[in-house]
Design a protein that fits this description.
The protein starts with a helix and ends with a strand. By secondary structure, it is of the alpha+beta class. The radius of gyration is 19 Å and the shape is globular. The longest helix has 21 residues, at 18-38. The protein has three domains: 1-38, no CATH class; 44-196, Alpha/alpha barrel (Glycosyltransferase), CATH 1.50.10; 198-261, no CATH class. The chain has helices at residues 2-14, 18-38, 65-71, 76-86, 119-131, 135-150, 182-196, and strands at 40-41, 46-47, 50-51, 57-58, 198-201, 206-210, 220-228, 231-240, 243-252, 256-260. Helix 1 (2-14) packs antiparallel against helix 2 (18-38), helix 5 packs antiparallel against helix 6 (135-150) and helix 5 (119-131) runs parallel beside helix 7.
Length: 261
């Protein structure tokens, strides 16, 4: 809702509806204030999954707050603590981030939303971590998900079980997971965006690449024919010794590619 209000506000302003834009932007600011006030669990370094009928926090530690990083609703002062919490051993299994902490009494590694691992969920969390500048944590999440993907021939299922990699040599399949599944199929594309630090701004005809960071096991990655508005671009990312460089191999159309390290 927060991200939707901000984005639709930008659309409204671009179309000349400044009054609607100002209202949506005001509502987004208010929503962010309420969320950070009412949902933040200071003792757990994360946000509550919800409020009960008495407006008391439901104190389960889940993967959901990672989506808050992706949307931008997390206050900067809380972001680092949340990043560390998401990457703690009870959440980050070795195959990806669990939906529910392994320390929760209701944790079940084969539960649909109570301890399993969802590829699309992890890709969104990783991208949110990258957007807040936590590239190491983002890469940890993606690297674990990529390792799991190797056992699925990179044809990610809807979800898989949340057993720790220290306990099982391969990721355990969820018995009735859809495969292929649309949002799981989209996960690798967002994973690549996170590695590359890419953000497109079509109205302003720009492609920003900020602090690209390929993992140690990936020396080279090519993005061919990526469309940004009416323009197309080919990019080459090369990693050596922990440093990732990028080259624009081809560009067709009006597009500024801005790289910041």
């Amino acid at each position: 809702m927060y991200d939707a209000k901000r984005r639709i506000g930008r659309v409204a302003r671009a179309l000349g509806h400044d009054d609607i834009a100002e209202q949506l932007e005001h509502e987004a600011v208010q929503l962010k204030e309420r969320y950070n006030r009412d949902f933040w669990m200071n003792e757990n370094n994360t946000y509550a999954v919800g409020l009960d009928a008495n407006k008391e926090q439901i104190k389960s530690v889940t993967s959901n707050p990672g989506h808050g990083l992706w949307s931008g609703i997390v206050e900067n002062a809380k972001a680092q603590r949340l990043a560390r919490r998401l990457c703690a051993p009870d959440m980050l299994s070795g195959w990806g981030v669990r939906t529910l902490s392994a320390m929760n009494p209701g944790y079940d590694p084969i539960g649909y939303h109570t301890g399993s691992i969802w590829p699309h969920d992890n890709s969104i969390i990783a991208h949110g971590l990258m957007l807040y500048g936590f590239s190491d944590e983002s890469n940890r999440v993606i690297n674990e998900l990529a390792l799991a993907g190797a056992f699925f021939d990179y044809r990610y299922p809807e979800l898989f079980c949340g057993y720790a990699r220290d306990d099982v040599p391969v990721p355990v399949e969820y018995p009735v997971a859809c495969r292929p599944q649309a949002w799981a199929t989209g996960a690798p594309l967002l994973m690549m965006r996170s590695y590359a630090g890419m953000t497109a701004d079509v109205p302003n005809k720009t492609l920003s690449i900020v602090r690209p960071s390929l993992p140690a096991w990936l020396e080279r990655a090519e993005v061919i024919g990526m469309r940004v508005g009416s323009a197309r671009v080919d990019l080459l990312f090369v990693q050596s010794g922990g440093t990732t460089g990028v080259q624009v191999m081809r560009k067709d159309g009006d597009l500024d590619v801005i790289v910041r390290y």
